[in-house]
């Protein structure tokens, strides 16, 4: 199989988008009203009919064109802009991208957001007290 064929494999693209959405084959099967084995077969298919593609796209929350034009490279660009990529080998990035840590400390960000919300609430209270005292 050549590189061009691999990039146009609709079934694999559906599989990757489903995985990125955190959806299991069984969930997609239930939504489509088919067996899990049917979803497995769809994901092994290089092409699928337009009507089925449209149904799958709707369930996955994307357009049929998004599935057709989906590329791992685009996803990696997004991941790499959000996460540290310690691997120069993209094949290991596929398997381990979910284990990467954000480039920021999430606890610090939550505390920062909480403090900003608290400051905003304090400012509202002060303004209301001023208005009431007038």
Can you tell me about this structure?
- The protein has 134 residues and is mainly α.
- The protein folds into two domains: 97 residues, lambda repressor-like DNA-binding domains (434 Repressor (Amino-terminal Domain)), CATH 1.10.260.40; 31 residues.
- It is 72% helix and 0% strand.
- The protein is built from nine helices and no strands.
- Helix 2 crosses helix 4 and helix 3 packs across helix 4.
- The longest helix is centred in the C-terminal third of the chain and has 28 residues.
- This is Helix-turn-helix transcriptional regulator.
- It comes from Sphingobacterium bambusae.
- InterPro entries: Cro/C1-type_HTH, Lambda_DNA-bd_dom_sf.
**Which CATH class of the largest domain is shown?**
Mainly Alpha
Using only C-alpha atoms, the radius of gyration works out to: 23 Å
Structural class: mainly alpha
What series of H and E elements makes up the topology? Answer: HHHHHHHHH
**What is the CATH-assigned architecture of the largest domain?**
Orthogonal Bundle
- In whole angstroms, the N-to-C terminal distance is 79 Å
Question: What is the fold-level CATH name, i.e. the topology of the largest domain?
Answer: 434 Repressor (Amino-terminal Domain)
Number of helices: 9
Domain HTH cro/C1-type: 14-67
Organism: Sphingobacterium bambusae
InterPro entries: Cro/C1-type_HTH, Lambda_DNA-bd_dom_sf
Keywords: DNA-binding
